[in-house]
Structure formats: structure tokens, C-alpha cells
Design goal:
Layout: E1 5-10, H1 17-33, E2 37-42, H2 47-53, E3 58-61, H3 72-80, E4 84-85, H4 89-96, H5 98-107, E5 115-119, H6 120-126, H7 128-139, E6 143-147, E7 157-159, H8 165-173, E8 178-183, E9 187-195, E10 202-203, E11 207-211, H9 218-222, E12 227-230, H10 237-253, E13 259-267, E14 272-278, H11 288-295, H12 300-314
Protein name: D-alanine--D-alanine ligase
Subcellular location: Cytoplasm
Catalytic activity: 2 D-alanine + ATP = D-alanyl-D-alanine + ADP + phosphate + H(+)
Length: 315
């Protein structure tokens, strides 16, 4: 690549700070191997002054959760006129809010598990047990409970019995004020990365996730050996094609840019059910995007170097 000065942003103050730092270190090393001059910057009160006084050619975002995915950091970069790899601020906000993103996907005819999103105040005002009973009557069991915003499956868990719901709700509300209750879909869990490193966006080989405990939660995501990955996923060619088409459709529908990752389940009837779409996929040693990049015969640094060039060209 043309030697570029790239600032890799990682850390921040979200619940996912440690994961972000791991992603940032790996991305910085990969870009350095690809020929970039890399600066690793935490996201703190000194960031704006750093960007003003020593502007890089581009920024690569390795932030997870909070300001790194909800569009806040992206909005500041846009205000400062700093080119960056990733999705624009407004589209970040849309994808960050899971109920909003699911509603847009569903309106476009894409499959996503049936759901309801309710704030903490609703349970307090109307009676928690009555609302929980209505939730189960409508969606059935098992249910997947997750915060309406956030990543890394923090606060997410599968509930198989009514008696488990109150404790699961408390755990979920520790990470957000609104709970997204989703019908649990049995099937093959997959992740599809979309990259736009050439003329058109393209889907990388789908990664199939086989978690030891049956649920791809925070522990399974970041503990080596807690999950087994197969890339490409062990699915027939028609389903692999549908996964790629669905990921591209979701990426474009939500207005995402450069790189994204769709998490989905291929249900027992072969339908692709979108769980969520991520604007800042993990880059750690156990993350799914690097697995897909290797399966595509690429190097992580080369991919991000191409994305940096696109960001610089955008100005």
C-alpha cells in the first residue's frame, strides 16, 4: 500500500473496552505489516486534540459498544473532516438500535425472529409478572433475551422456563434500559462478513459457529476453545448463496459502509433468520471476521489497507 498514517481507535469506556483493546492491537499489527505507519489511540478526552494537532491520513475504528458503534465517534470524525474506515454516523445509530434495525429488515422482507422490545419502566408501571406472562404467551419458549443495544452478547441469554425470566431480565437490564425479547430459533448459527474493498461490496465465506455450551455467549466468543468454527459453513451451495445475498441486502438496506458482519441462524426449514448486523466486527484471535478473511485467502492487513485507501479517497 501507499504508506499511510493510520490511527487505530480502540478502548473507550464501554463494557467492551478490553475486547476492543484486543481488536485494536491485532488491527494495528496487521496494518503495520501491510506497510502503514500506525498509531494506537485510546478514545478519551485527548482524542479530539490529537486529531486536530496531528491528523492521520485515515482512522480505522476497532471500538466495540457505546460511542464506537452508536455513531458518536463517527459523528466527531465527520465534524473534524477526518477520513475513517466504517459506517457513517447516522447509519451506525440505526444499526446500533437492534429493534430499529430489525424493523427495517422485516419491512424489506428479510426474515428476523419475532420480537418485542420493552423498557424497564414498562415492567415497573404495568407489573413485571403480567408483562412477562404476556411476552411468553405471544412469543413462546424458549426466548432469547438481550439488551436492545450493545454487542459481544453481554447480558444475552436463552430462557427455557418461565421461572427463569425474572433473573434473566435483571441480568439483561444491567446493560441497557430496554430488553429485546426474541423468539429463539434453533438451527445453524452463522456470521457473514461484508467488505467493500473493490468496486462492489462482497460477502466473505460464512463462518459456522458451534459453541460448546450450545449458546454463543460472551464466554464462548472470547475464550479460546469454547467454540468451534467452520468456514465456509457446512451448508449446501444454495443456502450459502442465500446467506451472501441476505448479508449484502442487509448491509445496503441499513446504509452500512466498508465492513459489516451479519449474525444469523439458518433454521430447520433452511430460512436465513437475521439476528443482528454489526458495524464494528471484532478482530480478536477468536473473532469471526479474521476467520472469514483467512478462508477467502486474504490477509487482514491487506483488507484494511484497501479500506483505508477507500476512506482517503472519500476525503
Amino acid at each position: 500500500m501507499t504508506e499511510r498514517t493510520v490511527a487505530v481507535l480502540a478502548g473507550g469506556l464501554s463494557h467492551e473496552r478490553e475486547v476492543s483493546l484486543r481488536s485494536g492491537r491485532r488491527l494495528a499489527a496487521a496494518l503495520s505489516d501491510a506497510g502503514a505507519s500506525v498509531r494506537e489511540w485510546d478514545v478519551d478526552a485527548a482524542l479530539v486534540e490529537r486529531l486536530r494537532s496531528d491528523p492521520p491520513d485515515a482512522v480505522a475504528i476497532a471500538l466495540h459498544g457505546g460511542e464506537g458503534e452508536n455513531g458518536s465517534v463517527q459523528a466527531v470524525l465527520e465534524l473534524l473532516g477526518v477520513p475513517f474506515v466504517g459506517t457513517p454516523a447516522q447509519a451506525c445509530r440505526r444499526a446500533w438500535d437492534k429493534p430499529t434495525a430489525k424493523a427495517e429488515l422485516a419491512r424489506a422482507g428479510l426474515d428476523t425472529p419475532d420480537w418485542v422490545a420493552l423498557p424497564h419502566t414498562t415492567f415497573r408501571a404495568l407489573g413485571a409478572q403480567a408483562v412477562l406472562d404476556a411476552m411468553v404467551d405471544r412469543l413462546g419458549l424458549p426466548l432469547m433475551l438481550k439488551p436492545d443495544q450493545g454487542g459481544s452478547a453481554l447480558g444475552s441469554q436463552v430462557v427455557t422456563e418461565r421461572a427463569e425470566l425474572p433473573a434473566a431480565m435483571v441480568s439483561c437490564l444491567a446493560y441497557a434500559d430496554t430488553v429485546l425479547a426474541e423468539r429463539f430459533v434453533a438451527g445453524t448459527e452463522v456470521a457473514v462478513t461484508v467488505v467493500h474493498d473493490g468496486d462492489e461490496p462482497r460477502a466473505l465465506p460464512p463462518v459456522e459457529v458451534d459453541a460448546v455450551g450450545g449458546v454463543y455467549d460472551y464466554t464462548a466468543r472470547y475464550t479460546p476453545g469454547a467454540a468451534t468454527f467452520h468456514c465456509p459453513a457446512r451448508l449446501d451451495e444454495a443456502t450459502l448463496g442465500t446467506l451472501a445475498e441476505t448479508a449484502l441486502a442487509a448491509h445496503q438496506l441499513l446504509g452500512l459502509r466498508d465492513v459489516s458482519r451479519m449474525d444469523a441462524v439458518v433454521d430447520t426449514e433452511g430460512r436465513v433468520q437475521i439476528l443482528e448486523v454489526n458495524v464494528s466486527p471484532g478482530l480478536t484471535e477468536t473473532s469471526l471476521l479474521p476467520t472469514a478473511v483467512r478462508a477467502a485467502g486474504m490477509k487482514l492487513g491487506d483488507l484494511y489497507a484497501a479500506l483505508v485507501e477507500r476512506a482517503v479517497a472519500r476525503g
